[in-house]
Amino acid sequence: MERIGRYRIVDEIGRGGMAVVYRGYDPHIHRMLAIKTPHAEHLADPDQRKRFLAEARAAGTLAHPGIVTIFDVGEQDGVPFIAMELLDGIALDAYLRTHPPKSIRTLLRIAIQIAEALDFAHRHGVVHRDIKPENILCRGETPAVKVADFGIAQFGTGRLGDEAIAGSPHYVAPERLRGEPAEPRSDLYSLGVLLFWMLSGNTPFAAASVPELLSQVLREPAPAPAPASRFPDPPRALLELIAALLQKQPRDRPGTAADLIDELQRIDDRLAERERNWAGQRIVPIRIRWPVVMAGLVAATIAVGLVLASRTQERAIGELAFDYGFTLAQQLALQSAEDLLLDDRIAIQTLAEAMAENREIDEIIIHDRRGRVIARSGAQQADPADPTHPDDRLPGPDATLVHQRGDIRAYRASDADGRDLLRFDTPVVYSGRVVGRLKLGLSTAPLATANRTLILAMLGVAGATLAAVMVGVYVLTRRLMAPVETLRRALWRIAQGRLDSRIQARRRDEFEHVFTAFNAMADSVQARLSEPSGEPAAGERSGNADGGPDPTLSPREPDRPPAGFPGDA
After folding, report:
1. For the stretch 76-97, what's the b/e string if a residue is b when 16 or more beta carbons lie within 10 angstroms of its beta carbon?
2. What residues are annotated to the active site?
3. Which residue segments constitute the domains of the chain, with CATH numbers given?
4. Is the pTM above the cut of 0.85?
5. How far apart are CA 9 and CA 168, in angstroms?
6. Tens of pLDDT along 186-217?
């Protein structure tokens, strides 16, 4: 098919049980649109063609933002067609798979938009007759919802066709299966099934065959939606509303779509208020707060320990360095005393150069009793005619006296390159006579390296300790919060009126006593609420008149894992 009416067919968009939808182009106004035509098997009956066109024209009168707009209705060569708005949205079932809802309020907003579209249609005398996920188009993150397929909806009153049952048996209202005329509350039943499905991931009834399914819809009461993993605690008011929508008799359902909108909006307002209250009282989860607090305490303790250990280490290494310097200066003074007395400058210079090969010795200066430098380590040799007093170089003008042991003094100073040094000044004594002085400079680089290595090692141990503490506390708090969450969910179920809820978990710790106390409380509450007025309280008796268990108490049901939700992996 290349053309139908004035519209050029571009391609086929989709094919359903009753009709085919094409992408078309309107050359008059240069617009792309969707064109729907019935399947060939539905075209043989002229009455069916006329009804299709009549219903399409009726739907074309519905101008509402929540209803797909119909632009044109016509017939060509015995083939009726509907030209309608072409949308970029996707069907509700696909939308929930690709955009998993984060809260029940998202589902409520979708249901409210559908109900608003139905309310508008019902007030204009149009019953949709086929509400199901495939006929709900969603766009955007919010999302914006449009109801489609009003083109095959029933205008006024009519009977259920077999093709509708084959198309969507899960969503068909019981009165239509009984052959009764479709009415606005038939759409409300279908919307109730849709709400049930969005909340739990399943439709109310499931069977191996269509006849068995239709029998369940006609005769069996609708079950309550099984909690989905995404929404384990749905509002009780919403569950009651769904139960009302799924009543077998239309008179037992909400009267109009407007009434349904009011109920849905009331539930949404309560959830919004609860969210605002929670937003004003945001808490930091224990599984995050405890590890952070414990890590902070451990980090502070480790930091104090590191500072104290570093200072103690620095002080201990400093004492060792001073001992080494004092001893070395004293030994050099003894070795050079006789040569100074004999004025053997070559021997003294040889001694200075030999000792300077030690990498820890920065410089050695030896002078005689008249203050002349007669030996110096390094490239600059001593000049016998040089009258410069060694104090001009060692300990130096920036030197600070830090220690003294007998006649030996220790200074802290810096050399020409800015390196820290320890400089020792000692007299050279021979037979009780001072025959000269010795200046010894030691580098502090090895001391700094040793101290830095120790600090790095301690930091590594501290980091590993801190990580172990954080991981350990996080794991422990997660294990602690598991029974707390079990108790919270059980309390929430009781608050929703599900008094038969019990905690079946068995533990070998204090939570076992807590769970036992909760179950006893639930037994007491359920017994008290089930007793007629004037009967003794549950705490005053342990059973019925025969001494057996109270028959009003429901058996405990184990906590079952929640059912899945559309789009859950």
Report:
1. eeeebbbbbebeebbbbbbbbe
2. 130
3. 3-84 (3.30.200.20), 90-280 (1.10.510.10), 298-451 (3.30.450.20), 497-569 (no CATH)
4. no
5. 28
6. 999 999 999 999 998 899 998 888 899 999 99
